[in-house]
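Cross-posting from the chemistry board since nobody answered there.

I work mostly on the small-molecule side, so proteins are not my area. We synthesized zinc ion and want a rough idea of how it might sit in this target. Sequence and SMILES are below. Is it possible to get a predicted 3D structure of the two together?
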Amino acid sequence: MDYDAKARLPDERLDLIGAIPYILMHVGAFVGLFYFTLTWEAVAVVIASYYVRMFGITAGYHRYFAHRGFKTSRVFQFILAFLGAAAAQKGPLWWSGLHRHHHRFSDQPEDIHSPRRGLFWSHQGWMLCDKYLETPPSQIREYQRYPELVLMDRFWLVPPLMWAGILALMGGAAWAFWGMVVSTFLLWHGTFTINSLSHIWGTRRYETTDTSRNNLLLALITLGEGWHNNHHFYQSSARQGFFWWEIDGSYYMLKILSWFGVVWDLRGVPQWVLEGKRRKHDRDVARAATTYDLPTGLLARMDALDQLRAQIARVKERAEQVDMRAQLAQSAADLAKRAATAAQNAAEASQATSAADITARFRTSAVEAAMRAANLAERAAEAARETAETMRDRMTSAWAEAAHRAAEMAAEAARTAQKAA
Ligand SMILES: [Zn+2]
Ligand SMILES: [Zn+2]
């Protein structure tokens, strides 16, 4: 990463006034320890209030509202939102919107809470900063047909106050202290480890472009969110522990709820992910390699093309956010993508020609494919350059570069194919 990771942007100021309730909760949790005795009942209240609301955060705010990992009724959707909101981490739309932003820009300069900007910042600093208080408008749009959610998002302080009230009614001041003050303190820092420690501490199964990691301990305290590298690699599944030994409390609970019809259509993990392939495409390459006995040079080139594809997909995703430019950007990105695919086909075919038992007909088609690819890529590059000139922003130049690289690769494939023919 070539940006100054620790530098705070000029408009990222810690809002000290706004942070007072947050700080007071910490002081309260500490001071209260001298007034309330720790009993087994208190421990049970802390843990129950912790995990019930953690479920609201992981299954509700994260897997449902941010990632749409399963479906449910409007009533249970509301219950999930309420349990998540009771954790006092603001409203469901604010939370899920900023979280989507984190995935889109993980550990890039735009990432609001990348640990590359310091552990304190990723853990809680970003949240105490007045720049990120607003719910992203896209989330409001998506959920506005549920006024109860929009309302809860605006008055996000009401559910935690109700939660404290229920505890006080059930067990007096002691329950309110243990179940709200202490439990929320633990719940906050438990949740925040996913933004901080989960990007620093643990193992990596998948070579994602971010720093996410898998960590059993963090998975236990967050009901399964500690399998964060899994999650960054494949985000939309209802489970984050991909294998039976990866303990994922939220998923077990969702599974049980699905038996009773409370939730349904739990999205699973596809086979190519379980096989540890970086992309679906990797499996196809592996299959082609065994069929044609492809040398490593070609595999490397395919790999580069594959990365290019991912880049184009990312660019495309960003392009979708910019209203007017989206159309232009998308068609150029599409073109570049098609060029990349064609170039890859050409590369594959041209390699095949080097095997002695491939017919002349096959050779001709290889050259043809390569030519077409080069043509396509050139057109993509041109479109990209043209738009880059008129737009002059990072997004445009990113896909201009992608298209340019596609052109280069296609040209190289063409040369190889021609030589082989
Ligand atoms: Zn996520
Ligand atoms: Zn993350």
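Reply from a structural biologist on the board:
Welcome over. Reading the output above for you: Residues 285-297, 355-359 have pLDDT under 50 and may be disordered. Residues 20-264 form one domain. Happy to explain the token format if needed.
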